[in-house]
Design goal:
Layout (H helix, E strand, L loop, with lengths): L2 H4 L13 H11 L5 H12 L4 E7 L20 E6 L5 H6 L33 E5 L1 E5 L10 E5 L3 H9 L1 H14 L4 H7 L2 E9 L14 H13 L1 H4 L8 E7 L5 E10 L5 E5 L2 E13 L3 E13 L5 H10 L4 E8 L10 E3 L1 E2 L13 E4 L21 H30 L5 H4 L13 H16 L5 E2 L7 E2 L5 E2 L7 H13 L9 H10 L5 E2 L2 H11 L6 H12 L13 E2 L5 E2 L9 E3 L23 H13 L4 E3 L2 H10 L3 H5 L4 E4 L11 H12 L10 E4 L9 E5 L6 E3 L1 E2 L2 E2 L2 H10 L2 E3 L14 E2 L3 H10 L2 H10 L2 H11 L7 H7 L5 E2 L5 E2 L5 E4 L16 E4 L2 H9 L3 E3 L1 H13 L5 H13 L1 H7 L1 H9 L3 E3 L2 E3 L10 H6 L14 H9 L11 H17 L1 H17 L8 H9 L3 E4 L15 E4 L5 E2 L3 H4 L5 E2 L4 H7 ...
Parallel strand pairs: 1-7, 13-15, 18-19, 22-23, 27-30, 27-31, 34-35, 34-36, 41-42
Antiparallel strand pairs: 1-2, 2-6, 3-4, 3-6, 4-5, 7-8, 8-10, 9-10, 10-11, 11-12, 12-15, 13-14, 16-17, 20-21, 24-26, 25-26, 28-29, 32-33, 37-38, 39-40
Helix pairs in contact: 10-11, 11-13, 14-17, 16-17, 17-18, 22-24, 23-26, 28-29, 28-30, 28-31, 29-33, 30-31, 34-35, 34-36
Length: about 1100
């Protein structure tokens, strides 16, 4: 017979109610699985006055050889153990067998020993066991192992002692665990017949059973521990006895790992007790949590118990339900917690769901009546209006909780005054009603708390000047509420404290509560209130930073006129002006459109650039009222203040240029100018209002060297060196600069639609404008002194002008831009210009007067035409030269040069101007024997007959006959080149020469006479002779004839010796027979010549031979002249 059979009846153990399994299943359906299981076991330990609780998840499996029953082999695997250092009493052993009947019913100090809560372990196991004091018991609700509800062993009985010592596999789990957690040896426990602790063993269900199909493995155990760890630091807050909870994991190989150790402690130094209608105790409680990291938290905990007879209804329910009318409140210190996530606890924290969150900053604990699943508090809802547990909860919360809360705040204040509680945490204790809008029940509690604090004149508000002093609401000045910055609040605080005001330090949540729930209306800090204080106390002792914050605040209500006289108007130099309408209290406000960089020399007049946007906006609105000298600058202000606040050295400057040195603190910074031109482009279409202000950078901007600025002037002398595709030649730029102009270089960003009014674009027209605006005499001097290249370049550049005004023409014609024929640079005034580009070339040696300048290029021509200077061709210059000769202004050499040039180019010149030809014809330019003669006075040397009969003086000098062209020109001027054109005078001269020459050079005389007679015979020259001239001709001995009686030889027979006779002495051969003996006769000349010369006249009667024979003569004459 086995030991089990032998002791079966005597050792019967377990629940006796027949329907226990069904009851158990129903409990498991309603009661939650998870971390709540561990909490129930902790509650039981706390009721047993245990101070330490340890949970062990042991993954080891033990032997199955020596077991009490083979059916127990399946429970030798992994298990959850729960150890505490209290021991089971006989009453506890009896109570744990009464399923669902809690032993706390008659003991209000017990949380609940082995009631419904303990049965939650059946979520994990089918066979729980308990080892404590003198017993070890196994419970078997399914009655599969022992044939009954379970079995237990007594340490006092020898037989059981033997079993416990020898049945190693069966009891080895207990042996290991009591050694680990209880620090006791198994043999000593058995020997002493007593285990001073309690150890629960819950073998993990690894297969479905009749109790539950909920299986537990290592992962699920880890989740169970994790769910407890989440609230671990809250678990010890409200327990009376348990001060340590640990979670241990033992791996399959026996490695022990402590996952969690949480401990609580209560220092006894600071304890506040109260004995009134409510018994109260406030103390600090520390929670130390060691897990993956160590964490320590400190709590202020208040316990408040309503005394009996103070609330009869509550007393009645307390007795009936065996509940204690006590509320505990815990407030966390030293850690960042959501101050509005206070939760409910029923000694241990209730599940972290929305219904258990109060919205209060404190954690609330009480002996609440809970729902069956122990997850929620019961309230008086429609289906629970008469539920006593719900009524109890309502009374407890409405009557006890507010008083406990007030006591907690009052005690915290007392601790603050003792420096035991941080003032910074004090108001965190107060409810924040904004976080409780959807929690009406708890909102009502908060409101009730406020009513106590505010309306019972409690000194609960801390003074700003001394946070350890507290005053009631009726004496306080409440800080401003709303979206005010912390630095502003601090500044207001310092100001009001320094002015002696009873300002209290309150967070916005408390201020809102005061506004909502106080029955009296205390003084509040408002802009108006603060302005009154400042008017009364002044602002001299307030720091700059505080002034700025205070200004922003007192502007915020828009009552700007109440600022009058307050010296709170900030300027960027750190000073403050008063709000007045005086000039010295001027303050400027810039904006995005008109930034302060536009007025760099007014920087001390601007409000600070880092002024808050709110303050700036209010000052802008204030400026619109125009009640103080606060100005929103616009474009007109920029004009006004730019001119008024120029750098002093710029103001004193009378010249057109100023020096801008960015290293000079009195000069604008480098970024000023470009910003200013952006402003000009945006707001001004023309720049007249900025005249005489230096705004034009002459050279590229630089922060390393000074920049020259030019003033905007109406008669501008500024011109760009380069603009777009146009540029000013260097030589011209240098000349303009020398003359007093300013050439602007670089800075391509410099643009404005009216800029060209003040800075001209590089063009001939612009250069002309600049010249017009400069000192004309200085320009003339500078042009005179500049190089030939520069003058030529200026002339070429200006020649591109399309037109000239009268004044421009007057200036330009005075500039020495043109050369005379001799190379001197002169002005075009009163000048004519010779166009050198048309032929023929005018020789440089010609004495062209300085009134004639050169028009050597197309540029010269264009410019001279603009100046309306008369342009001359070579022929017109020839006329001028001829006129000079006529006037006697030319020496013989100059005359010779002039006429040589004219004669050489006669065809071209005369074709250009017929007047020249006419003047040359009339000009006596050939000097012969001291007499000036015309070309028509001379004979063409190319005519041989002329060369024979005339001397050299009758021909042009060789200098004029060097070329055929010259001879042709002379011919055009009247040079005699035809025999028929010989003059009687010249013929007479020729005959006279023959007469004179016959003596010394008879042959030449004869040749000349013969040629002359041939000419007279071939040409009707004698018809030109006057009677006197003809008479002279007849009397000159120039006609060669044979001497009388020399025979009948012809006159032109050169072999015949001839003598020279005057025509008067000669008769026609028709008289040869009559007077041939006495007179020379000639018969070969034409009748016209014979007649003119009188050769056919009757011989003179004195000739004797003719006189003696008159009748014969007549006969012959008749024969000759029928």
């Amino acid at each position: 017979m086995s030991c089990m059979t032998r002791n079966k009846n005597r050792r019967s153990f377990g629940a006796s109610a027949p329907p226990f399994l069904d009851y158990l299943k129903d409990i498991l359906r309603r009661y939650p699985d998870g971390g709540q299981i561990l909490k129930e076991l902790i509650q039981n330990a706390d009721d047993a006055q245990a101070t330490e609780v340890i949970f062990i998840h042991d993954e080891r499996s033990y032997g199955t050889e020596s077991l009490w029953s083979s059916n127990l082999g399946q429970y030798q695997g992994p298990a959850l153990y729960a150890y505490n250092n209290a021991v089971f009493t006989d009453e506890d052993w009896e109570r744990i067998q009464k399923a669902g009947r809690s032993g706390k019913i008659n003991d209000p100090n017990k949380i609940g020993r082995f009631g419904i809560g303990f049965n939650s372990v059946y979520h994990i196991t089918d066979v729980p066991s308990i080892f404590s004091s003198g017993h070890l018991g196994l419970m078997d609700p399914q009655e599969e192992i022992f044939g009954d509800k379970g079995f237990w062993w007594f340490l006092i009985e020898p037989e059981d002692q033997h079993t416990l010592m020898t049945m190693h596999d069966q009891f080895q789990p207990y042996r290991d665990l009591v050694s680990l957690v209880g620090k006791q040896e198994w043999c000593k426990i058995i020997k002493n017949q007593y285990f001073s602790g309690t150890l629960f063993r819950f073998p993990l269900r690894n297969k479905a059973s009749e109790i539950s199909d909920n299986l537990y493995d290592s992962d699920k155990m880890a989740e169970l521990f994790d769910s407890f760890i989440a609230d671990a630091d809250l678990s010890l807050l409200f327990l009376k006895n348990v001060s340590s909870v640990s979670l241990i994991h033992i791996s399959e190989d026996g490695t022990v790992n402590t996952r969690l150790e949480v401990k609580s402690s209560e220092p006894t130094k600071v304890l506040l007790k109260k004995e009134d209608d409510i018994e109260g105790l406030t103390r600090f409680k520390g929670i130390t949590l060691n897990s993956e990291e160590q964490k320590e938290t400190k709590w202020l905990v208040t316990t408040c118990t309503m005394k009996e007879s103070k609330m009869p209804k509550l007393d009645l329910l307390a007795k009936k339900l065996s509940f204690l009318p006590r509320v505990d409140l815990a407030f966390p210190l030293d850690e960042q917690r959501d101050c509005c996530q206070g939760r409910l606890s029923c000694f241990l924290p209730l599940p972290n769901n929305e219904s258990n969150k109060t919205g209060l900053p404190v954690y609330v604990n009480a002996c609440f009546g809970l729902t069956d699943n122990r997850r929620h508090i019961k309230w008086q809802e429609e289906d629970q209006k008469h539920d006593e547990h719900a009524l109890w909860n309502e009374l407890l919360v409405k009557e006890v909780l507010p008083q406990a809360y007030v006591m907690l705040i009052q005690d915290a204040i007392q601790l603050c005054q003792q420096s035991a509680f941080p003032v910074s945490s004090l108001y965190n204790l107060w409810p924040d009603v904004t976080q409780m809008q959807h929690k009406d029940k708890w909102l009502n509690i908060a409101v009730e708390v406020f009513h106590h604090l505010f309306n019972e004149n409690m000194a609960v508000l801390t003074l700003a000047r001394d946070e350890t002093q507290f005053i009631p609401l009726s004496e306080a000045v409440i800080p401003c509420n709303g979206p005010t910055k912390s630095e502003t609040l601090s500044a207001i605080k310092r100001t009001l404290v320094s002015c002696g005001e009873n300002l209290v330090s309150l967070p916005a949540t408390v201020v809102r509560a005061i506004e909502a729930y106080a029955h009296t209306y205390p003084k509040h800090v408002t802009p108006s209130f603060l302005r009154e204080v400042l008017h009364r106390s002044g602002v001299h002792n307030i720091s700059k930073e505080d002034k700025l914050c205070i200004l922003e605040y007192i502007l915020s209500d828009g009552k700007y006129r109440e600022l009058e006289g307050l010296q709170l108007l900030p300027l960027s130099d750190g000073s403050f002006r008063s709000f007045t309408n005086k000039e010295e209290d001027t303050a400027l406000i810039d904006n995005k459109e008109f930034p302060r960089i536009l007025l760099p020399n007014c920087k001390n007049l601007f409000i600070p650039h880092d002024l808050s946007s709110s303050c700036r906006n209010h000052l802008r609105e204030l400026a619109k009222l125009e009640v103080f000298r606060v100005i929103n600058i616009d474009k007109n202000h920029v004009v006004q203040y730019t001119r008024k606040h120029l750098p002093q050295d710029w103001k004193q400057m009378k010249k057109r240029l100023a020096t801008w040195d960015t290293s000079n603190s009195h000069h604008p910074p480098l970024d000023w100018l470009q910003e200013f031109w952006r402003f000009l482009n945006s707001h001004f279409s023309e720049l007249s209002c900025f005249r005489d202000i230096p705004l034009i950078p002459v050279n590229p901007l630089s922060d390393s060297q000074p920049v020259t600025l030019a003033k905007l002037q109406q008669k501008t002398t500024l011109i760009f060196q380069k603009r777009g595709h146009s540029s000013l030649p260097d030589k011209i730029a240098q000349l303009l600069t020398k003359a007093g102009s300013t050439v602007v270089r670089g800075n391509v960003w410099l643009k404005h639609e009216d800029l060209e009014t003040y800075v001209l674009n590089p063009s001939p027209k612009s250069v002309m404008k600049v010249l017009m605006n400069l000192d004309s005499q200085q320009i003339i001097r500078d042009v005179k002194s500049c190089s030939q290249t520069a003058r030529q370049e200026l002339k070429d550049y200006l020649s591109n002008l399309n037109s000239l005004s009268g004044r421009e023409k007057d200036l330009l014609i005075m500039l020495p831009l043109f050369q005379t024929m001799t190379g001197f640079w002169v002005a075009a005034q009163s000048k004519q210009a010779l166009v050198l580009t048309s032929g023929p070339d005018v020789l440089s040696g010609l004495p062209v007067p300085d009134s004639v300048i050169q028009c050597a290029t197309e540029a010269d021509r264009r410019l001279l035409q603009l100046l309306k200077v008369n342009l001359l061709g070579p022929a017109e210059v020839g006329i001028i030269l001829i006129d000079s000769i006529k006037k006697g202004a030319c020496c013989s050499e100059e005359t010779e040069n002039i006429m040589t040039w004219i004669l050489k180019h006669g065809d071209i010149l005369f074709s250009q101007n017929q007047s020249l030809k006419f003047k040359c014809k009339e000009l006596r330019f050939i000097k012969v024997k001291g007499e000036q003669k015309k070309a028509s006075d001379f004979y063409d040397p190319r005519i041989k007959t002329f060369k024979i009969i005339l001397e050299s003086d009758f021909f042009p000098p060789p200098v004029y006959t060097e070329t055929q062209q010259m001879l042709k020109t002379l011919t055009d001027l009247g040079l005699i080149n035809k025999e028929a054109d010989m003059t009687p005078e010249h013929l007479l001269h020729a005959t006279t020469m023959i007469e004179e020459q016959k003596v010394n050079s008879e042959s030449e005389a004869l040749q000349r006479a013969q040629v002359l007679l041939e000419m007279l015979d071939s040409c009707d020259l004698l018809s030109k002779f006057s009677d006197v001239q003809l008479h002279r001709l007849k009397m000159i001995k120039w006609v060669p004839c044979n001497q009388p009686a020399t025979g009948k030889q012809e006159i032109f027979d050169k072999s015949t010796k001839s003598c020279f006779y005057s025509p008067e002495e000669i008769r026609h051969t028709m008289y040869e027979d009559i007077v041939g003996e006495v007179m020379p006769v000639m018969g070969k000349l034409s009748d016209r010549v014979n007649t003119k010369l009188g050769l056919k006249r009757l011989p003179p009667p004195e000739k004797e031979n003719i006189a003696e024979k008159p009748s014969l003569l007549q006969v012959r004459l008749r024969k000759k002249c029928p």
